[in-house]
Specification:
Layout lengths: L9 H13 L19 E4 L4 H17 L4 E6 L8 E7 L8 H12 L5 H12 L7 E7 L5 H14 L3 E8 L2 H12 L42 E4 L26 H19 L16 E6 L9 H14 L2 E10 L7 H9 L4 E7 L3 H7 L5 H13 L4 E8 L6 H13 L4 E6 L7 H5 L11 H17 L2 E5 L2 E4 L13 H7 L5 E3 L4 E4 L2 E4 L4 H9 L9 E3 L1 H4 L1 H12 L6 E6 L3 H22 L3 E11 L2 E13 L3 H4 L1 H13 L13
Helix pairs in contact: 1-4, 2-3, 2-5, 6-21, 7-8, 7-16, 12-14, 18-21, 19-21
Length: 668
């Protein structure tokens, strides 16, 4: 990337002019209204969006070039807006939202008069120091609206006009699918695929292209769920330590003037209000949330251990009055070293906290400094001792792998020390250098300044797997290890019950800023900004105030299947699905399962996957229900290492299954 403010090469300027001239094919309507790019992108009447789409194609290519050629996604959809509307939303390389400063660039570009487009583009490139000679990668998806094909063509034209660029349309997909494909593309996973396989489904935005077929819709909502999982965003409003995460947080006053405590109390007041009236997203959707005892509760997101015990008691009391707790409920609190005392740990335990997750990250002083962590190795060890003394025996610790300058011995030494202290669950996360984060700015190039190459990071992962197995832990999820209870092959009782609910697609309620719920097949994310969240609760939790709503899991059978495959294959248990071919929906599901099996078979030959496909009756003595059964799991550590690539192949295979006859589509 060039230095900010440097002059663009002449050839690059010509490229900008050519892109601007191409806009003549998509002129801006004279009476076009001013539009603004928000959290949902642009959404308005489809008949005035052609010009906007072309320009957003240019912007997507510019964003990719600004990120040194990482893939950027573009989704053409208006979600649940009327059919006459449409919209466009850009997706970052890891599936994140477009940064706010780029939202401003999108708004300016969309509203620029045609005769000033070249000038505005040149100013933007100069301002951001973008090297236009970098190859851009843009992945385009769309929904099933009648206007989406036309608008996708305009967008592809815009992205392709700013050469060099690779524009890849994947046809009709949902927003979560696009996010996943973009993430896989960003990791260059097509290069990890077995010979003869491609990691992504390619196709042009026309009705006959591979990957462009519409997904089937069901006519009824999913069955009402148990309110068994509650993910609170409580801690998101509390002070946070560390510089490698990108969570919705707000740092409160800690100067002893009482403002921080007042802010926490104000936040909990609103949180309790949401607990009483919400949980499923908008307060009006609460009917979809079945009342019943909670089996797990997780406080996470920022630094929940800074929460005063009296405020934790208020939250737990509110949840108890609304739902109740099962007798063996797993109540977990994330507790960062240096943020709690033995006395507070005892208070939390007396309130019903039975499990703690401790963000150790490393036991090396220099690595902790590089992480920007506010605690020392000594504080981490004291935190673990305090939890044990308080009677909280079920303790999980987080470690980071792939830190700049980290050696294999540093990682494995930390693992051994934590296990010796009685930790019965370890989450070992491979550090991702996300664009825009402090880590990515400080360590931009793999193999330099201590940042590991992908190969070195993979070796650390494999070494950690071997060490944990030798210490008596099972590798039950891509990043998770649990201490086994004995020498048998049964699953460890120390697995995270709450996280397993996510991977098994068990419905869960959620409360707090930035918290995401999954109820009745609908995913909803609350406002991320604390003040926006408080205002949303105060206004009665309207649907319009939600940060994001995804109805695909409720309305699209294939989306639900895709997600179940992707989440299930993250675990050592894998997946076991049966499609009953007695119905049209079951026959379509059977075709999808066969496609998944076909995509996984090459990976079985390379030792990454176990997969079997069986045709037969649902029950041995019941021939009236013929069907297809798929069993599959990734093998640790090799399969887990390439899980994104393997799952991308499976997703691509399902996307290429022909649509069922719409007249025979039935409810799930």
């Amino acid at each position: 990337m060039g230095a900010s403010g440097s002059a663009a090469p002449a050839v690059a300027v010509l490229g900008l002019e050519a892109a601007a001239l191409g806009s003549a094919n998509y002129p801006r309507p004279e009476a076009a209204p001013e539009i603004g790019y928000g959290t949902a992108g642009f959404r308005t009447a489809a008949d005035v969006l052609d010009n906007v789409m072309y320009r957003m194609g240019i912007l997507a290519a510019l964003r990719s070039k600004a990120l040194d050629g990482k893939s950027v996604g573009v989704m053409i959809t208006a979600s649940h807006n009327p059919e006459r509307d449409n919209g466009v939303k850009l997706v970052e390389p890891m599936g994140e939202m477009l940064p706010q400063e780029w939202e401003a660039h999108a708004t300016k570009l969309a509203n620029t008069p045609d005769d000033r487009l070249a000038i505005v583009l040149e100013e933007l490139v100069k301002l951001l120091g973008i090297d236009l000679n970098i190859n851009a990668i843009v992945v385009v998806g769309r929904d099933t609206r009648s206007s989406s094909v036309r608008l996708a063509l305009a967008l592809c034209d815009g992205a392709g006009a700013l050469r060099p660029s690779l524009v890849r349309s994947i046809g009709v997909v949902t927003t979560p699918q696009l996010h996943y494909v973009v993430r896989c593309h960003r990791l260059s996973l097509e290069n990890c695929s077995p010979p003869g396989r491609t990691a992504l489904a390619a196709g042009c935005p026309d009705s006959g292209a591979p990957g462009s077929s519409s997904l089937p819709k069901t006519t009824s909502a999913a069955a009402l769920p148990d309110a068994g999982q509650v993910d609170t965003g409580t801690a998101d409003a509390l002070p946070h330590r560390g510089r490698y995460c990108d969570f919705p947080i707000a740092v409160l006053s800690g100067g002893g003037d009482g403002r921080g405590e007042l802010a926490m109390t104000r936040y909990v007041d609103h949180l309790v209000d949401e607990i009483q009236h919400g949980g499923a997203g908008a307060f009006a959707w609460t009917d979809g949330l079945r009342e019943g005892p909670l089996t797990s509760l997780y406080f996470g997101g920022g630094t929940p251990s800074l929460l005063p015990s009296k405020e934790l008691a208020r939250i737990l009391d509110s949840l108890d009055r609304r739902f109740g707790f099962s007798s063996d409920a797993e109540v977990t609190v994330e507790m960062d070293p240096g943020t709690f005392s033995l006395e507070k740990a005892k208070e939390f335990a007396s309130l019903g906290v039975v499990r703690a997750s401790v963000g150790v990250q490393s036991l090396d002083a220099e690595l902790l400094r590089r992480c920007g962590r506010g605690h020392s190795a000594e504080e981490a060890l004291k935190a673990l001792e305090a939890l044990g003394a308080a009677g909280i025996r079920n303790v999980s610790a987080d470690l980071m792998s792939g830190l700049p300058g980290q050696s294999e011995e540093q990682l494995l030494s930390a693992v051994r020390q934590l296990v010796s202290l009685g930790v019965n669950h370890l989450s070992v996360y491979d550090l991702q250098f996300e664009p825009g984060t402090d880590f990515a700015r400080r360590f931009p190039q793999p193999g330099r300044d201590g940042r590991p190459t992908d190969e070195a990071a993979a070796m650390l992962y494999a070494s950690c797997h071997e060490e944990m197995a030798a210490l008596g832990f099972e590798h039950y999820e891509v990043s998770s290890f649990a201490r086994l209870a004995g020498s048998g092959s049964q699953a460890s009782p120390n697995r995270s019950r709450h996280n397993q609910a996510y991977w098994r697609r068990t419905p869960y309620a959620a409360f707090g800023n930035g918290a995401a719920s999954f109820v009745a097949g609908l995913r909803a994310t609350r406002p991320r900004d604390v003040e926006a969240y408080l205002a949303w609760v105060a206004s009665g939790g309207p649907e319009s105030g939600l940060h994001e709503v995804d109805i695909s899991q409720r309305d699209h059978a294939r989306d639900a299947l895709n997600e179940a495959v992707m989440l299930g294959l993250r675990t050592s248990d894998g997946i076991r699905f049966f499609a009953d071919e007695a119905s049209a929906a079951g026959r379509d599901a059977a075709l999808c399962l066969e496609a998944v099996a076909g995509a996984l078979l090459p990976w079985q030959e390379t030792g990454h996957v176990e997969v079997s496909l069986r045709r037969g009756a649902l029950e041995p003595d019941d021939s009236s229900h013929p069907g297809v059964e798929l069993c599959a799991k990734l093998l640790a550590p090799e399969g887990f290492l390439l899980s994104d690539s393997i799952l991308s192949d499976a997703l691509a295979a399902v996307m290429q299954v022909p649509d069922p006859d719409p007249t025979s589509t039935t409810s799930k």
